[in-house]
Write a structure and sequence with these properties.
Blueprint: H1 3-19, H2 24-31, H3 35-42, H4 50-60, H5 64-68, H6 76-84, H7 90-107, E1 110-112, H8 117-120, H9 122-129, E2 140-141, E3 155-156, E4 175-178, E5 181-184, E6 188-191, E7 194-204, E8 207-214, H10 232-249, H11 255-264
Antiparallel strand pairs: 1-8, 2-3, 4-7, 5-6, 7-8
Amino acid sequence: MSDNAKMVFADNLKSYLNAKGLTQLDLANYMGCSSSTVSDWCNGRKYPRVDKMQRMADWLGVRMSDLTSEHDKLDDADIAFYNRYKQLTEEEKEHFTITAMGTLRLGNAKFLHGCIGINLDYLARQAFWERGLDFNHGTGHGVGYLLNVHERPNGFRWKMVPERMENAVLEEGMLTSDEPGIYIEGSHGIRTENLMLCRKAEKNMYGQFMRFEFVTMVPIDLDGIDTQYMTEKDVELLNNYHKEVYEKISPYLEGDEKEWLKEATRPISK
């Protein structure tokens, strides 16, 4: 890594630490490394690995590019902004967590052939409705083989909307989005979205069972997850999803990028 890149990173890191009222010791404690290592980063002597840099960015509430790119120094308004958002609030964490739970619960549904989206939509909304919350849109829509982003006849919503014509039986091969969310005016908005392929499961005396297969292999940000709002089953679903993400994506990565993915998909517990 060039000396200039090291110094750019060092200046940015010190600037964000100062903006958030944090010390080098705070960073060392969070990262689980020595104070001398953090001093090397802050003085441009060393450059951290990508996975470590991503952890720092997540902790500071900034993008990794904010740490690696040259930009103007933070002014007082910037510092005030970052001090406000340096940590997620408990409400934001709860909302992020239940949104992820909704995505995973629906995506892991197993159901008899003949179901339509309205039969399954509650799986995505349960954690919201239990709290007196909701999102005022459908949970998912069809995605067509002709690349129509919203394509009938499949979809997920909690009530019948005849004019949308998306109440078809869920058939093998249908691709449907899974995108619960929550939007608090003047505060925050969250949506966790994936695409799911409908597959056949086992067939027995009760009929043909169906399941979904996630298509979008991207980690869910663990810094936004608070397991106190999750059941053991919810934690299992998240860990299983992240295991699948790592197994399918890591063969295409190497070095720092692979290490970052390993950290981003690490198993968690309650």
